[in-house]
Structure formats: C-alpha cells, structure tokens
Amino acid sequence: MASKTPVVDVHTHMYPPEYIQILESRGAIPIVRSFPGTPDPRIVLLSTEITPLKEAEAAAARGEETPTSSLPGRPLTSHYASVEQKIHFMDTHGIDVSVLSLANPWLDFVDSDQAGGLAASVNAGFSAMCKAHPGRLFFFAALPVTAPAPILLKTIADVATLPYCRGVILGTGGLGSGLDDPDMEPVLAALGEAGLTIFLHPHYGLPGEVWGPRGGTTGEYGHVLPLALGFPMETTIAVTRLFLAGVFDRLPKLRLLLAHSGGTLPFLAGRIDSCVRHDAHLWKAAKTRRSIWDVLHEQVYLDAVIYSDVGLQAAIAASGGAQGGGLDRLMFGTDHPFFPPLETDEQGEWESVSMNADAVKKALGDGSESAAAIMGGNAVRILRLYEEATEKA
Ligand code: URA
Ligand code: ZN
C-alpha cells in the first residue's frame, strides 16, 4: 500500500494542567489571572505585559472592569491545556503527528529546589498524553534549568529513555547567563551525546526600551514588536553567541532545531561571516573553525514557521539550498495554541496555520516531493518518528 508522507507539526505547545496551576498561584509573570467581566482567565507571559498587568490589577482592585482589548496577555482557552483540543486542532488541519513542547517560559522561573520534581512531572504528563494517542503524539521534554547540575544532567539521562521523547525544548537563557555560558557546555554535550535534538525557542525578546514609549508598555502596538521582531532577534543572538564561543566545533553531535526559521539567521548569516572575517582575533580562530554556513548546513535545522514563501526560500537557501541539502533541514510547524483566529471560530481553521502551509506550497509547488518533505518527511527522518516507541534501557 502506498502510504502518503505524514504531515508533522514540530512546533506546537501545551501547558499541562499542573503547570497552569502553578501559574495560577503566582503573583508575578508568568501568571494566570482572572479579571472581572471576562469569560477566560488571562495567561500573561512577556515582560512587555508587566505594566498592562499592573494597570488591570489596579482597576480590578477598584472594582472596575478593564475592556478585554486592554487586558494583558491572552485568553487562556482550552487550546493551551487540553490534549483532546490538540487532537481536534490536528484533525481540523490535516496534521497527522505533533511533537509537543511546553510553551515559554518553560521551567526557567522555577525555584531551584522545585525544578527537578516539576520537570519530572511535566515530562510524565507529556509521556502520558503521547501514550494515549500512539503514533500521533511525541514530545520535546522540559529541562529543570534552575536545578543543581547533577539533577539537570540526571533529567537529561532520564528523558532520553522516555519512549515518546525526541528532544528537549530550551530557551535562550540557558542556566541564566545564556547558552554560551561555559557552565552550559556539559549540558549541551550531554544532550548531543544522548541524541536529543534541542528545540531552541525565544521568550525574552529584546530590552523593552527598544520598542519606544508606544511599543512595549501601553499596548498601542499590541504584541507585534516583541513577537515579530524581538523573538527572532533573540534566537539569532543566542545562536550567534554559541557560534562565536566555538561550541558547535567542540560539540559536533549538538543538533539545534531553531524556532521561527532561525529568526533572522538565514538573512544575516553572510553579515555574521563578514564581521568575523574583519575582527582580527576572531578571524584568527575562525581559520581553524567551521563557518556559520557550515553550522547551518550540518548542525542546525529550521522550522517552517515563517508565514511567507519569501522567508521560507531564504531559510532553505541558508540551510544549503535545493541542491545542497537545504530542503532536508526544514520542518513544518504551527505554533499552536498561539495566534488563534480573531474573527472566526477557534474550533475551525486557523489562518496562522494556512499561512505556513501555503508558504510551503508557494515556495515548492503544491504536491511536490520537497513540499511533502518539509510538511512531514523531514521530521519523520530527523526525529526518528517511525522508530518504535519502546522503553529504552
Ligand atoms: N507567543 C509566545 O509567548 N510564545 C510563542 O511561542 C508564540 C507567541
Ligand atoms: Zn512557539
């Protein structure tokens, strides 16, 4: 029987119920907070939302209602925490397999002594969801980055044995000082040795001042500046720092899947390369190292969450191009449950999904072999999705 290449979503998040409970118990971001007059509680994640959060809390304390359009964060709908909702979303959009990940800010904010236990419970929750939907769900595990090193390393060893785990999701903060922190290197080495792909995802963006008085705090420009520009720059900076620190050369088994098609890396890799060539001490070191292009061709995968064929073509070209393996390194994603439709039923089709699927069709041709590879074939191969999901020793 000829089987069609499955459609695989490698960028799709959830907050399991126990994680939501923690956010509900908190007094600062990340936080889940109910406000009078709105049906859904709000989930507030980003530092740019601190001022609107304080304003809405002050209004609530005065017994006033804040208009929904001025509330901080986004409505916490069933899309964030329900696995049944995830399956419905997949069925609605023709997605055969999803590789789930905890959404930002993961466990970055958790007290050191709680982090290991919470990671174990979140990862057990994801395992149970996958087990309940065999063949349809896999996951990237969450790491207790604030825990003492032995606990963090033990978690990596543990998740590597979980049958449905295919990697880990990691923010750019690392242990708190970024991924190029020397203390992070044993962690990255352990992930590489365990064959766990790191799904690198932004959360912190850029400092609020860069958005100007109208951008970051008043809500006048919504989430556009931090999400469309801050997130991709954050990813770009994190990977460039890893590259400049020589980590890719020292850890040849390290594999990163970069969110949002690598931020701005596909567009800026040439400029990074040129700047290295014009900085005397870096160029001396660079002569014995691989270039940023080599890293993009050998150790980095990009998701296809870029919403336009223009960006997608750049991502393919930067990954090696059609002749050089670039088509083999891109993987479709949705970023569900973020970016729901504003004017149509959330149970129906999401424009944010069709924009990404259409970009693949427009760039590579509807029904082409390379489109099928990006829509799922690459993920099956890279993340070993057809490998039997059995408990490893
Ligand atoms: N906003 C977030 O906070 N996270 C995402 O992954 C996407 C949008
Ligand atoms: Zn995301």
From TrEMBL:
It comes from the Eukaryota. Residues 56-75 are annotated as: Disordered. Residues 118-385 form the Amidohydrolase-related domain. The keyword Lyase applies. Residues 56-65 have a biased composition (Basic and acidic residues). Keywords: Decarboxylase, Lyase. InterPro entries: ACMSD, Amidohydro-rel, Metal_Hydrolase. It holds the Pfam family Amidohydro_2. Belongs to the metallo-dependent hydrolases superfamily. This is Amidohydrolase-related domain-containing protein. It comes from Sporothrix stenoceras.
